[in-house]
Amino acid sequence: MRSGLETRDELKVITLFHLIGLALEIFKVHMGSWSYPEDGYSKIFGVPLYSGFMYASVASYLCQAWRRLRVELLKWPPFLVVVPLAAAIYLNFFTHHFWIDVRWWLSALVIIVFWQSWVTYEVNGTRYRMPLALSFVLIGFFIWVAENIATFFGAWEYPYQTEAWSLVHLGKVSSWLLLVIVSFLIVATLKQVKEKIPQDRD
Questions:
Q1: Is residue 202 part of a domain?
Q2: 2 falls within a domain
Q3: Which residues partner with 131 through β-bridges?
Q4: N or C: which end of the chain has fewer CB within 10 A?
């Protein structure tokens, strides 16, 4: 785009994540999982529009890291495994309110599916690699740290933070971990699909 920060394709991915995140936020606020107590002019069903940008920022980070760090994936699972897994993880954020919460089963399935997968990246001309599952955990943890900062300053609050602020439950790391996995799977799948599409020639 004009700023040079994101390409047109990356902007499409970021917009998609904004919509996915906003839909999740509206549902979660309706179910009482958390709330946005402050008044605002840009709220939809009690959810400020900026909440979608929080999810979009994760997509932006993944897209930027992919391009700037020259990310490559080794032993990536088949498309027909990745897509249903990502869909199941996302749907569980909704269905666990009415059915059993299968996040730990999904987490175990992620470990099995990506056990042999690695991510390689380049920093200052040197290539490094780490287990893909470890990268999920690290990103999820730092998002949890950022969430603590956001709730401390009142961006949103959980029911147990209404009277006084306290640390976000460590168990939320698992939620962010799964959300990061969904984000990564979507970005990685779209990247691979694009690579298989013949580019127009002049």
A1: no
A2: no
A3: 118
A4: C
Q: What is the pLDDT along the chain (202 residues), one digit of tens a residue?
A: 454 445 777 777 788 888 888 888 888 888 888 888 777 677 888 888 777 777 888 788 888 888 889 888 899 888 888 889 888 988 888 888 888 888 888 888 988 998 999 999 999 989 999 998 888 888 888 888 988 998 898 888 888 888 889 898 887 777 777 888 888 888 887 777 676 665 544 4
Tell whether pTM > 0.85.
no
Show the domain range for 131.
8-196
Give SS3 for 167: coil
DSSP 12-42: HHHHHHHHHHHHHHHHHHHTTS-B--S--SS
- 73 φ, ψ (degrees, to nearest 5): -110, 135
Contact 60, 23 (CB under 8 A): no
Residue 3 domain-assigned? Answer: no
Give yes or no for a contact between 173 and 163, defined as CB atoms under 8 angstroms apart. no
**1 within a domain of the structure (yes/no):** no
Number of structural domains in the chain: 1
